[in-house]
Amino acid sequence: MSGPIVTIASLKGGSGKTTLACCLAVHWHIKGFKPLLIDADPQRSVVRLGERERRLGGIDILEKPDKDVWKISRQATADHGITIVDTPGFDSDITVAALAVADLVLIPVKASPLDVDRMMDTVKTLMGGVKGWAPTFRLVLTQTTRGSVISRHVRGELEEGGFPLLSSDMPNRVAYAEAGLYGATPSLTAPDGPAAQDIAAIAGETEALLETKKALTA
Q1: What gap in Å lies between CA 208 and CA 192, rounded to an integer?
Q2: Which of 6, 55, 80, 198 measures 20 to 30 Å from 206, CA to CA?
Q3: Facing residues of 85 across strands?
């Protein structure tokens, strides 16, 4: 049975897109899901992390920064339990191709007004990329500060605007950068720590959405 494809997309650099993609892929690798992480970003951030000491836990990584990423993603589903695609932080044919093949799109959004504005452009690309295609997507708040006014305000503003969000967010923690020094994620360096728990919560919501979509289309 073919595994699902999760595309991580944002037209705003610094949103935490690559961090989220790597963390989810490593989490699912530890759970035995046999993930494939596709680096479709010409900046090669995933590939570079995979070349460091911890090699992202030994997950399968494929570099494909071109518009044929949709084709290789579909082919990969036969051999992997789940495929995660990290896209460029700008509008391109690569991004559109990765969005079009996704079973679920996660859009990381920093808790700031400027990042919310740029997120709107990502959603427009989602909705207008492929004629007749209705994407399933969720926003993921990243680099948040728990209990802060700005985090509460941004979440409330997005919910009021009708944008679907995950309940779990990705708080600003130094554990991500520290793990990245060694080509790792918090799930590898501190599996019982708060950052790893944050990722597990995001992964759990993602898995539930994929199961729901699978049931609806069966």
Answers
A1: 22
A2: 55
A3: 7, 38
Maximum C-alpha span of the chain: 45
Q: What is the pLDDT of residues 24-78, one digit of tens each?
A: 999 999 999 999 999 999 999 999 999 999 999 999 999 999 999 999 999 999 9
Residue 142: how many other CB atoms lie within 10 Å: 24
Q: How far apart are CA 19 and CA 14, in angstroms?
A: 10
Domain that holds residue 171: 5-217
Cα(10)–Cα(120) distance, rounded to whole angstroms?
A: 10
108 phi, psi to nearest 5 deg: -70, 135
For residue 130, the SS3 value is: coil
Q: What CATH number has the domain bearing residue 140?
A: 3.40.50.300
186: closest CA among 178, 177, 194, 196? 196
Going by C-alpha positions, the residue among 33, 40, 46, 37 that lies closest to residue 3 is 33
DSSP structural state of residue 29: H
Question: What's the chain's length in residues?
Answer: 218
SS3 string, 138-195, reads EEEEEEECCCCHHHHHHHHHHHHCCCCECCCCEECCHHHHHHHCCCCCHHHHCCCCHH
